[in-house]
Every structure is written in C-alpha cells, then in structure tokens.
Amino acid sequence: MTILAIDGPAAAGKGTLAKRLAAHFGYDHLDTGALYRAVASRSLRTGETPEHAAERFAVGDLGAGDLRAEKVAQHASVVAAVPAVRAALLAFQRDFARRPPGGKGAVLDGRDIGTVVCPWPDTIKFFVTASLEARAKRRYEELIAKGESPIHAAVLAEMAERDARDAQRATAPLKPAPDAILLDTSGMTAEDVFHAALAAIAGKTR
Ligand code: CDP
C-alpha cells in the first residue's frame, strides 16, 4: 500500500497538493485537519469536553456546517494539544492509511502524519511550508473568494498564533519527519508544487 504523508503549517498548500496527488494516482485522500475541526465543532456545540467529543466522534461530524470557520480552526488547535484527543483519532487515521476505501493508496495531510500517524520508512513524506506572509495572503484570498470580508492583519495574527500552538505543544508537535522531503512553496504556484512533488516521488520509487 502506498502512503503519501503531507504535513506543514496552516495554508501552506497541503490540501491542494494532497487532492492533486490523490487524483493523479487514483488514491484516497484524508484531510486529517477536518477530524480535529470536527471534534472542536462538536465540543463547542454540545459542551462535551474535547476528550468526550473525540471518543464520540463519528464520520457524520465531518458534515458540520462550521468546520471551516476561524473560531473552529482556533479551537481545533486547542483540542489537538490534548493527548487523549490525538489518541482517540489515531486508529481511524491509521486504518484509512492501511486500508483506503479504493484499495490503491492513501494520501493523508495534517501536522503529524509523517512523525506519528504513518512514521514507517516506506511512507513517502512531504513537509510543505511557505513564509507566514505568503500563507496569510493565500488564506486572505480564499476568504475573499468565499464572499467574506477578512481583515488581513487579523488573518495573519490568528495564523501565527495557531502555528505557534501547533509547533510548541508537547504531544505530536508540528515538525518535519527526519526523512521528509521539504518543499517551500512561497514563490510557487499550485501547479509548480504538484510537479515538484511528482518529481520527488519518482525519485523515491525508482
Ligand atoms: O486548513 P489549515 O491548514 O488551516 O488547518 P487544518 O489542517 O484544518 O488543521 C486545523 C488544526 O487541527 C491545526 O491547526 C492543528 O492544531 C490540528 N491538526 C493536528 O493537530 N494534527 C493533524 N494531523 C491535523 C490537524
């Protein structure tokens, strides 16, 4: 089973790359950030503790209407620092990686896929980054495209806060796996990133 792991900070282009690679190879894609967002949304909605929300997590929670909201993103990074929450979501992610629905391969994007979820030597691991300014610009433009009226400085500050929380937590902090391929996407288009990743995969699987 081929497993592609794509980790990195917020709005670095992980999701876009993961979707393109999955479509190209006919693999299944799991956005693991959506799991943490769903737990955060559930705990905000029901008042359950993050631990309880994670234990009761069901695939239906991924349909919550507020999953992409900034409030939920911030709360996701708070619940994601709770070890019991991460432990409750681990089996689901590993099962998906080892037995993806289509049976060909899996692409998982997140923060700890290469370091904790699928740390095995045959996982092909990417660590995708970009400068804070480039990432904030992308997120700002995404929000404008969705019809929202974001404040650029607020988008940047919230992203910096979330990245710091993700990188500094004790359990599964955001960091590259020792054998990860590093891709700095600051000056690159989505197309450039996709081709760079394809070239790296060809180099690994030759
Ligand atoms: O889309 P964006 O990159 O802004 O965020 P996301 O991938 O949806 O992740 C939301 C939050 O979930 C992150 O800030 C992390 O705190 C957490 N997360 C995590 O801890 N581990 C993962 N594998 C994926 C996400």
Task: Map the helices and strands.
Blueprint: E1 2-7, H1 14-25, E2 28-31, H2 32-46, H3 50-55, H4 70-79, H5 83-98, E3 105-110, H6 113-117, E4 124-129, H7 132-145, H8 152-168, E5 181-184, H9 190-205
Parallel strand pairs: 1-3, 1-4, 2-3, 4-5
Helix pairs in contact: 1-9, 2-4, 4-8, 7-8
The chain binds cytidine-5'-diphosphate (CDP).
Helix proportion: 40-55%
Largest sheet: 5 strands, parallel
The hetero molecules present are: cytidine-5'-diphosphate
- Whole-number mean pLDDT: 96
Shape: globular
Strand order of the largest sheet: 2-3-1-4-5
Low-confidence stretches: none
Q: Tell me the span between the first and last alpha carbons.
A: 16 Å
Radius of gyration over C-alpha positions, nearest whole angstrom: 16 Å
Please, could you describe this protein's structure?
- The longest helix has 17 residues.
- This protein is an alpha/beta fold and 206 residues long.
- It is globular.
- Cytidine-5'-diphosphate binds next to helix 2, helix 4 and helix 8.
- Cytidine-5'-diphosphate (CDP) binds next to helix 2, helix 4 and helix 8.
